[in-house]
Amino acid sequence: MLFVLIAPVSSTVSAFSLHPSALCNTQARIERGLARLIVLAPLTRNRSYGHVPQPHAAVYYSQRTTKGGLLIAEATGISDTAQGIVLAPLTRNRSYNNVPQPHAAVYYSQRATKGGLLIAEATGVSDTAQGYPHTPGIWTKEHVEAWKPIVDAVHQKGGVFFLQMWHVGRVSTYDFQPNGQAPVSSTDKGVTPSLEGVEWSPPRRLRKDEVPGIVNDFRLAARNAIEAGFDGVEIHGANGYLIEQFLKDQVNDRTDEYGGSLENRCRFALEIVEALANEIGSHRVGIRLSPYSDFMEAIDSDPDALGLYMANALNKFNIQYLHMIEPRVVGARVLQGPEDEIPHRLLPMRKAFKNTFIAAGGYNRSKGNRAIADDYADLIAFGRLFLANPDLPRRYELDAPLNKYNRSTFYISDPVVGYTDYPFLEEA
Ligand SMILES: Cc1cc2nc3c(=O)[nH]c(=O)nc-3n(C[C@H](O)[C@H](O)[C@H](O)COP(=O)(O)O)c2cc1C
Ligand SMILES: *[C@@H]1O[C@H](CO)[C@@H](O)[C@H](O)[C@H]1NC(C)=O
Ligand SMILES: *[C@@H]1O[C@H](CO)[C@@H](O)[C@H](O)[C@H]1NC(C)=O
Ligand SMILES: *[C@@H]1O[C@H](CO)[C@@H](O)[C@H](O)[C@H]1NC(C)=O
Ligand SMILES: *[C@@H]1O[C@H](CO)[C@@H](O)[C@H](O)[C@H]1NC(C)=O
């Protein structure tokens, strides 16, 4: 890929990096703030003496500043056309028998732009990780081979592609488990049967000596993702699934070193982060968290503290990004009312975390612009709007009208309808 970074690049940061950690001083933040306001392909200018951004760069960038775009610049490696717009991970239930299908290559490449980050849908790390029909896997050779042409299609358009690594834990039923066994979790407490219309099966609490095996499943899956060609992986630590079943104090009722204190509840997540950073490189690892969500009855009594603890703890591993979901979002639903408020709850986490910070949930163009201009986040992930607008970055650039999403086709298994048939701007 073509990106050159204007900032000094440490040896662990490769060309598709989102955020060289060397940029993390105040001067660099000011610089990044300015740089973010331009639409300009990444251009190394060799004028940051001793790797320190200089005042003359303010003149250079402000000369090139335009109004209104949701933008990101060369310092992060996210290039002009992508404008800092990220495709949020979206489960689409179209990977028959857990095998990614050729139609996914069409879907993702429709949404790919040069330098734009796409996060692929939640993908099971093992045969105990699944809880919904036709969601993809990454634990067999067949899965890896099936992902390859999909990843290729995105790379052909210059996109940056991360795979979301998923274990549903107790959000599952016997039908999805090998030999019809009980789903595994941090706890024996099940999700209330019939919640979201499914008869969830009672889970079995993982023994302490089984936890390393699950961490290892994530590690192997991450290695598989890299073998399939992905640029990196996002650990799914959100929306009530296995990792959140450990993180949150209203679910986790363990008395061993994986339960009780905040430190203990976060141990499992951080062990996965560490294992993946060691396996594939910290610059290829991101994590998604939703401390405020109560989706699938995963609730924490102090989400501010949980989010902040994780933001600080993650710094130790120097991972590529932290992707946080706004309190206004529960699972795939945005709550009424507070949707319009100016988001602020994530700010302490944004400030604490030293690498790229992605915010998601209930954003549109103007709210995204505002968040970027306020330095509230580096990048904004869009879910439903990107689902319904394959050319969302272009539409944002032109401030063009958007297609409306059709909720009734979010999760149908058709290879086209509600998936690759949303029109591009010129066809709309
Ligand atoms: C169809 C659909 C599928 C989703 N699947 C996932 C998923 O696989 N992983 C995940 O972390 N979040 C998933 N979400 C949540 C979205 O990533 C996002 O957080 C949510 O839609 C709010 O963002 P938005 O307002 O931009 O849509 C899904 C949401 C929708 C609508
Ligand atoms: C400026 O940096 C680029 C790559 O970062 C390098 O290829 C080029 O040779 C440098 N130019 C000078 C004059 O040092
Ligand atoms: C974004 O949403 C807010 C309220 O939720 C609305 O006021 C604003 O007009 C929207 N912006 C765009 C570009 O649709
Ligand atoms: C949504 O999709 C369904 C199924 O294809 C279709 O019947 C319905 O008309 C669509 N709704 C809108 C508003 O387009
Ligand atoms: C598809 O998967 C999602 C999980 O994100 C789930 O909520 C939804 O009910 C599933 N759809 C079907 C038809 O099973």
Automatic annotation (TrEMBL):
Source organism of this protein record: Sesamum angolense
Signal peptide span: 1-15
Pathway where it operates: Lipid metabolism; oxylipin biosynthesis
Keyword Flavoprotein carried by entry: yes
Highest taxon above the source species: Eukaryota
Calcium found in the keyword field: no
PANTHER family: NADH OXIDOREDUCTASE-RELATED, NADPH DEHYDROGENASE 2-RELATED
Similarity comment: Belongs to the NADH:flavin oxidoreductase/NADH oxidase family.
EC number: 1.3.1.42
Protein name, per record: 12-oxophytodienoate reductase
Required co-factors: FMN
